[in-house]
Every structure is written in C-alpha cells, then in structure tokens.
Amino acid sequence: MGESYQVMENAEEFYFPGNKIGVLVIHGFTGTTQSMRFLGEKLADEGFTVYGPSLKGHGTDPKDMETTAYRDWIRSIGDALEILNKTCDEIFVTGLSMGGTLTLYVAENSSLIKGIMPINAAVHMPDLIKTHDSLRDTKTRFVDGIGSDIKQEGVEELAYAKTPVKSMKELIALSMIVRGNLSMIETPAMIFSSTVDHVVPPDNSQEIYDSISSNDRELVKLENSYHVATLDNDKELIAEKCVGFIKRISKI
C-alpha cells in the first residue's frame, strides 16, 4: 500500500449538474482545481453540466505527484469523461497549461468532443527541457514550483511549492506526443493565449492554431494576464468567450 495523502483545502474536485451539455474543466501541472473553479462556476451558471476533476497526484503533496506518470493524468481525464457521458449528449473540454495539453490530447483521440478551449496550453517548453536535462542525472528530486504566474496583485494560485523533477519528464513526454498529433484535431477550437507568459511560451498557442486541422478555430489573445489567466485580469473574458463558443457550436 502506498502512502496516503490528504487533499489540500480548496483543491477538491467539483461537479455542477446541469443540462445535456457537459464541460470538462482541467487544471494544470502541479496546480489544483482552484485555478479552474471560477471558470467552472461561470459555465455552470449558464446551465451546463460542469466537471472539474483533480488529476492524479495533484492537490495533495509533491511526493504524491512524484509517483504518477502522464498516463495517470490521461486516465484521470478518461474517467471524468465517462462520468460526463452518463448524463450529457455533447461534451466540450477546456484546460489551463497542462490541462490545455490534455484538452488537445482528448481532441486528438476522440471524435466525440464537440469543441475545445485550451488556455496557455503547453506543447513545447524549451526551458523546461533544458532544466530537466540538467537535473535528470543528479540526486535532486524537487525544485521550486512554477505556480502563481499572475499579473493581478494579491491573487495566489493554489499549487505545489515544489515541482518533482521526475514529473517534468512526464510533462515533456506528454507534450511531445500531443505536439506530434496536432494535425489530427478537427474539432472546433477556441485557443486562448496570454501575450506575456513566464511559464509556457506564447508561441505554443500560435503553433497549436497553425497546426490543427479544424476549419472552425480562433486564437484569442489575453493582453492583461500572465500564465494562470483563469485567475487573472482576463478571467471574465475567458468565461464569456467560452460560453459564447459553446452556445454557438452546440446543437442542443
């Protein structure tokens, strides 16, 4: 039996029952559902069924995350989609950072998704690769965390203070897989990109926009937010745009 870890306060998963339109809301690498709750609540206010799961190894302790692999995070999303599919006829997916990467992964591997809304999604992170390369053969297990890249003063992201080096490798592997299959995406897409992002280079979103095969796609620039845009100055804009996108695409 592995060690048992307690879920941090405000890191719990959330589920808001609603109509036949389901929206999967995915948090990021080392982050928690706290970063996505505002968006989730705004979507629920429109009557949608909204599920914000906690990715395996997240919302507890960095040592817990260290024991997980990207396949575990994919499995977390697969389980969440199964839950939404029980009551919903159409599914949309949105996610921040690695949550955006997982959003893209879902679209690459399922033709059932009606639309995607990745937010500062990661598909290629040269600085992270460089950092991992410098640490992978050392005894260093953890480095300082990457949370709370937020422009608005006084706002904090609930995220791990330390990042497991092993988990960096998993994120890099996931990003490489997703990046290599972007052309498989044909579902409608609204891609959000902060113009200043200290975690994921903004050109990731441009590459996603240029590489996917969706005829219906839009790149929305977030001029007043850093990486954790769902907690930043543009959070209302993101919610408004997501609602409009879902209503336009949905047939229900």
UniProtKB/TrEMBL annotation:
Location of the Serine aminopeptidase S33 domain: 23-232
TM ranges: none
Coiled-coil portions: none
Recorded superkingdom: Bacteria
Annotated InterPro entries: AB_hydrolase_fold, Esterase_lipase, Hydrolase_4, MAG_DAG_Lipase
Protein name per the record: Carboxylesterase
Annotated organism of origin: Virgibacillus subterraneus
